[in-house]
Structures
1.
Amino acid sequence: MRYRLEAGTMVTMENAETIIRRGQITWDNGRIVSIGEEDSDVEPVDQVIRIPEGIVMPGLYNGHNHAAMTLFRGLADDSPFFEWLEQHIWPAEARLTRDDIYWGTLLATAEMIRSGTVGFADMYFEMDAVAEAVAVSGMRGWLSRGLVGDQDPDFQKLYEAAAFAARWRHRAEGRIVPMLGPHAPYTCSPEYLAEVARVAKKENLAIHIHLAESQDEIHTLKQRYGRSPIELARDTGLLQNRCLIAHGVHMSEDDMHILANHLSGGVVSCPISNAKLGNGILPYPALLEHGITVGLGTDGAGSTNTLDMFLEMKTMAWLQKVRNHEPHRFTAWDALSLATRGTSEILGFEGGMLAPGQPADFIVLDGARTHLVPELDVVANIVYAATGADVTYSVIGGQIVMAEGIITTFDEGQARREVRGRVRQLVDSKGR
Ligand SMILES: [Zn+2]
């Protein structure tokens, strides 16, 4: 099937100036065939969609998520971090079944599709259930089983993760890409990380890991090993593979040199999670200076509450301006670039831009909404004025997964009902 979509405005993300007015985009077989101004003399297609007030833009890529944690949205909010984790999240997670994780993930995909995300990097457990939900949803998923080395002395779970990768590689029309997910250097020993690095190299898998998230982590690792998280990542061989580093808030000049010299992949910032848990603000200008690729992610809904990447872009921009006192140094374009091209590049994917030959991953915002008028600066409107709720269409790998605000790939209402019912069993009903 060949499709053409005509819309009032198109933001291609090739460069900040490329805004097409009265544009059209044609796609076939999962890829963009052409994009440009409307042309009356065009070749025939199978279906034409006209959205005169639509704003077409690349879909967003969420670089760090624990999707099934939608099950814990609102559980023990505002608690101190370790109380939240140890007294509320871990006991509830211990009761999770495979089906709970399937439905929690499916609910997350509905929320992500609705708010313009087309692909996400996930770290959790029962990853077959996660992969099944991703396959059903129509989204792209870079999926890794979270590995807590301290609970895996004989590497059994690591080898299971490699087996999961072998099972799911190239599945769901190529939308699923398995990765290896060692949780963090404070829950995985250097020996464990070295074995992860070895398996990753052998199986040609990229790595997804939490690094340099909190000041506490830096102190703990300095005491335990006399090294920073980034030094540990280098010394254990992790950086010899493509690495997606979640957070990267606390890094020294030396750490950034290491990443500049050794890292393929990049740092995925989760500004809302970092703010809410009191962990700080990414030193973005320093990373930029060192040429380190930066992307954007939400982290799980257990801590961030929402998976709306539009909120994440806004927060990123605000916090950078708060931190650096130079509002012109981090622009709406920068925020949008991180959530599209930035994350995509870190994942080793070619998305994040609308051009012929690129994957047909794009979304349409309803430009008729009152808060998006006038259109003096469409990119500023997208980042500072829009929310995920303004997204009405989503196309992923050429498939229309949402049309006129309705998800086409699965029954979203059923996912809501399942999650409501299951959470009653999982969480003490009087628990905050
Ligand atoms: Zn995380």
2.
Amino acid sequence: MLKSYLGIDIGSISTKGVVVTEEGDILASSYLWTEGNPIGAVKRLLAQLEEDLTGTEARIVAVGTTGSARELIGAILDAQAIKNEITAHAMGTLSLHPDVRTIFEIGGQDSKIIILRDGIPVDYAMNTLCAAGTGSFLSSQAKRLGIQVEQFGDYALRAERPTKIAGRCTVFAESDLVHKAQMGYAVEDIVAGLCNAIVSNYLNNVGKGKKIEAPIVFQGGVSKNVGVVKAFADATGHDILVDDCGHLMGALGIALLAKASGLEDDFDFSIRSMSFKTTGLECGRCPNNCEIVCVLRDEEFLAGWGNRCEVGLEQIMRPE
Ligand code: SF4
């Protein structure tokens, strides 16, 4: 029997999962789109992971969840660890780079920076409002230029004279890009300009006021874009480290945190055939009128949150 730990990172765009050994080696991993249905996405994720583990000796003894739907999925899976993305990303990155001092992360629709000193996260910032520097923005601009987003980085590296693109918001960047294309700039130079604009937008917004020091690790879906990696290296004057599993770092970190919890309970994949639903209730026992989100398994109350005191949950569990 091989003791292992499951970590799930459920974001609004993508859902990631890894199963790691006691030594922290990844045994199985999966990455798929959340499609607005975190419970459905986690069920599909579990099906893939179970298939990947077939024939191995792995037995999952602890589960961790992170990401925007961590409470919901944590309740459903009876997780031993439920932590925010900053903690999970820091933990995952430190397991591979114990001396990391800065983490850049650019995902599908948001971005963040984490500053660490001596293995401890000391500062962070997140940008969830502006899409200008994110993966979805890059995908839409690639489409506009008629190239595959996967080829974006290679185009950028071939640029001879990167053009300047105004990257401070999507509207400016889009109109500037159209303008530059009409002026006859080479696609390679426009793509390189866009990569530089994304990096400048990131450093001036998410990274504003942060003490960026090497070693720097870059992760999230956009870290696969070698053009953006080069732009970060040029702008910071440091090497930028990118891991193959950089897009799974939150899931890896929360799997390790589940292990670190010291709590163990055999995990059963049959949980994915159960029926779960969420419902909202208003407590109304005092003027706070807390809105409580409840998750039900096969119509039975499983967990709830949003209550400011215990009375809210007690009246759901023991209605008069
Ligand atoms: S959960 Fe507590 S604070 Fe919230 S409305 Fe009910 S009694 Fe008031």
3.
Amino acid sequence: MKAAPFAYVRPSSLADAVGELASTDGGGKVIAGGQSLTPVLAMRLARPDTLVDINAVEELGALRTRGGVLEIGATVRQRRVEHDPISRGVPLLGLALPWVGHRELRSRGTVCGSLAHADPAAELPAVACCLDAEITVTGPAGVRTVPARRFFTGAMTTALGPDDILTALSLPIAGRGEGFGFAEIARRHGDFALAGVATRVRLREGGSPEATVTAFGVSDRPVTRDVSAELASVLAGPQDTAERIGESLPDVLSEAAGQLVDTDGDAHASRSYRRRLFRVLAGRELGKAYERARRSADEVST
Ligand SMILES: Cc1cc2nc3c(=O)[nH]c(=O)nc-3n(C[C@H](O)[C@H](O)[C@H](O)COP(=O)(O)OP(=O)(O)OC[C@H]3O[C@@H](n4cnc5c(N)ncnc54)[C@H](O)[C@@H]3O)c2cc1C
């Protein structure tokens, strides 16, 4: 099939892009990398009357650090983030990006487009939620920021209004004593995940570690939970290794699995299989995150 006819505009300033979108009375759509939107148009799952191409808006192409965050503008390609040394400040991005589709798709697809598209099995929304990132949105009423954990409101649904443009994602730069993990299970590499996890562990001086897991592909949106108590319950002391934690944790993650994994089963996996995948992946990746956090703390203090 071919896309239904649409008008196409390519404004060169953010103000013009917002104006063009607002002038369509809800009938317009932003196009960034086009890797998700183009198939949607071709299958006529959406029939926007106007496409607002934001790629000529220079200010949306920035990839920079400021004030302790990595800021990724709306037209920054996933491949650029994957390879730019500036992204090393956010190690979870480096762990997650190779899992996003295929290299060719990442050459065009944008990080922000993936957030706006909000596929429940997508990797980057989970990264944003795990890190408690902030999303900047610009609309006719001005600029606002939305915490990533409140941005995703359902399957392919977000806090964006019809006239809003997602202008940037701000991710916290990792600090001393932080470690991360990421993994997913898909039928083939490049497919959307049956289940996946992003993890973060932060060591606190004199206290027990803070641990967070975000699961994706298991609900209608990425789902995040504090699992500090679960991690603390399996820690045994200096002999802790990623492998040992990865073996012990799945047994204590049953309650978390029951809460977080609520998707109906489908042709690829039942709900109970996804719960099992979650427990195993989360255990393993929390173990790795813990070990990396310890290494990060040691590196800075030696
Ligand atoms: C074969 C295939 C496999 C894929 N596998 C994966 C995968 O494993 N994991 C994964 O996460 N993704 C996957 N994708 C999707 C891909 O990563 C897309 O690049 C990404 O989801 C969307 O980014 P984009 O820049 O191409 O957005 P577009 O296609 O341009 O837009 C997607 C949607 O977001 C909206 N949008 C985009 N940018 C903005 C903005 N700045 N403000 C407001 N709305 C905006 C558009 O209106 C549209 O509704 C796959 C795609 C294909 C075709």
4.
Amino acid sequence: MTTILIVDDEKSMRDFLKILLVKDGYEVIVAGDGEQALAALGKNRIDLVVSDIRMPGISGLELLAKIKDESEDIPVIMITAFASPNDAVQAMKNGAYDYISKPFNVDEIKSVIHSATNQTEATLKIQQAEELFPEIIGKGKEMLKIFDMINRIAPTPANVLIYGESGTGKELVAQAIHKKSKVHARPFVPITCSAIPEELMESELFGHIKGSFTGAISDKNGLFKEADGGTAFLDEIGELTPIIQTKLLRVLQEREIKPVGGTKQFTIDVRIIAATNRILEEEMRAGRFREDLFYRLAVVPIRVPSLRERKSDIPLLVEHFLEKYSTLLGKEIREISSYALEVLMGYDFPGNVRELENIIERGVALESTNIILPENLSLGGPLQTRREDSAESSAFVAAHDEEELFERGLETVVADLEKSLISHALHKAGNSKTRAAELLKVSFRSLRYKAKKYDL
Ligand SMILES: Nc1ncnc2c1ncn2[C@@H]1O[C@H](COP(=O)(O)OP(=O)(O)OP(=O)(O)O)[C@@H](O)[C@H]1O
Ligand SMILES: [Mg+2]
């Protein structure tokens, strides 16, 4: 994570730059003048400074000189006013990385900042990554980027949002951040937001006082107190209801919690790592996720790539899981046939690493030779199906005579169902095709076409 310090006496300019850069994944700290900037530099690890030149108090050029005195290698980009080319020249002479003149365009400033930060960016080497993160398998550049990111942000107290498809290893990344943090000896407490009913959520997060509601038979600490001094892992954060989102936001802002039924506030000191497999930007656009909460949580966003995007890691992962399940199941299978591996390399893995792990586990269990053969790979097999899905699918079958369904065949069954549903909707809608189409959530044209086809 790259942290940028923005120094400008004009608030609108600070806000504008901040929004722009946060959107691009940078962490941003702002300062209203040179004094504040120096204070911020003393307190934080800053990778880049963007500073106005004309400011009351310490001028931008003086600030530049002080930064260059203290820490030679922090690049500084100066913002110069429209008609003062001398400022720009002076800035470059004094060691500025570059300058941009007001009014500047967005692309220009982005590209200058991008090249300045790339110069300081160092990527972790494979061997180093293996030593630092033995439990996370992956050597491709996608994972190396993530390791590098974990390494850099773990020691900071910044909140982290990990996002990516299901089964990509988000929880592993969260654990790794905690392990590499300064608070690694303190608790890492996970909570799965989707698994807790809304009425219990507040108490799960903030605790409760004995007797505050039916069932509160003793005091409860709640997540934040359990994790005090350490890391709270809020998994599936996208599932939080609006009410809880608001309460959580308040806690993040004030760093204080009040247990349900309690009167006293407690100060908390917890690093928050949140994870989601939803696209929170979309959730925000749809009004389902609070934007202010998002920015509090996603100070550092980390995207974990899908397995499809890093297929070169498949052989390593296979080897890792073969080892794991051979040992676990007391077998001696340490190899996969080259054709079986080819099959895996060509597969899409909608369930990502978790699915690959399941496939190998099953393969090891089923295999009677000492090498995994393609016939024992069940791709997209029953393990991939979520339990709810299969329950839903058999409900329809259970309500009918299974043999008769197979006898009639898929097309006839679907057509009959379609016909009877449309007929029902038409009846309900008093024969209005427009209304029936609304009921069935199809277009008017499509309904008219189908009604004609089935002679309704
Ligand atoms: N890079 C990896 N190396 C080794 N094992 C991995 C890796 N990524 C994921 N796994 C394994 O895959 C399984 C799923 O990982 P994890 O629970 O971290 O995924 P997730 O992204 O949190 O998924 P979900 O969104 O469904 O909660 C776990 O058993 C984990 O150990
Ligand atoms: Mg998870």
